[in-house]
Amino acid sequence: MRVSVPEVHGKRAVAIGALLALATVGVAVVTAATAPVQVKATTRNEVKPAASGEWLVWSKSRRRRTSPFDLSAQHLAEPAFKVNPRNTQGYAGGIDRTKLVYQLLRGNIPIRSDLRLYDLRAKKQLALPSGINSKAWECCGSIAGDWLLFSRGRSYSRDRQLLLLRNLVTGEQRVLDQLRNKNGLLTAGQLNGVFAVWSRCNPYPRCQVFRYDLSSATTTPLSVPAGKVPHSPSVNQYGTVYYFQSNKGCGKSVELVRQSLTGPALVIASLPPGRDSDDSYAFSALPRPPVRAITTHIYFDRTVCRSHTWDIYRVDDTELLPPPLSPPPTVP
Known about the structure:
There is one protein chain. By secondary structure, the chain is mostly beta strands. The chain has a single domain (5-320), classed as Methylamine Dehydrogenase, Chain H, CATH 2.130.10. Helices cover 6% and strands 50% of the residues. It contains 1 helix and 25 strands. It has one helix at 5-23, and strands at 30-33, 37-40, 46-51, 55-61, 69-75, 81-82, 88-96, 99-106, 113-119, 124-126, 138-144, 147-152, 161-167, 173-179, 185-192, 195-201, 207-213, 218-221, 229-235, 241-246, 255-259, 266-270, 275-284, 293-304, 309-320. Strands 1, 2, 23, 24 and 25 form a 5-stranded antiparallel sheet that branches. Strands 3-4-5-6 form a 4-stranded antiparallel sheet, with no helix packed on it. Strands 7-8-9-10 form a 4-stranded antiparallel sheet, with no helix packed on it. A hairpin with a 2-residue loop joins strand 11 (138-144) and strand 12 (147-152). The longest helix is centred in the first third of the chain and has 19 residues, at 5-23.
């Protein structure tokens, strides 16, 4: 069901009002989330969204069914424009202010994948330092400050798969995870502030989601109920992780889960039977004191398993934190 922008804002205002009322009676930390709403839904397939305060990027198929994808970018309500060059395919990665990192594939049947950096405001390609792209398969980049998170090596292949964190200024590189399993998957999720997330299947459906803190160089595996398969993680700048969990198979009891730095995991949304997701991206605007409500917009692609059609959706998750509200950690 399509919901207009005023309706979405109205629902969020009601949710924040309810949270403030709860806070006055002594509730320490409370949350509320809106139902999923469509963001991009056309006769084409739309996948892999990423967003910032003024920008939305996503990949759109050239035809109705399975076909090459082009990367689109849109500033506020202005017309969208194509990012990737001619004779290539593009898939969104991550945005930091007006810098976008994305995956570039050459040809309709690509044999190589690289990362590219792009200035959304100037509409031009930017140079990446040497050593990021190699003869291997680079994928799934996400950027925050001077740091770039990305994957190297094909999933479900005999390649050595690496999860890398690279400083674009100093050249420092950290290997956060690695895997060699022809039935395994190691893929970057999102880098936001000092927090990075990724997923690992060794092999599927034995999967796990991890959160990494750049400032302390510590990795935390997130707990998942027995029998559930976690996937498609994202993270906000406060370290709250969002991911999907489901039973084995496409569209089997799919739930969007919220896991903060403290407290239990909470299911904040459920997808209808036969619907699933492959990618999520979290963006939060910093609150202005004295308001202590933090709203995170979780963008995700949603597929109909039977028809293999894809659209972009969003859930708004609002959290009210107890005072004092500290700013999120900054990238070292």
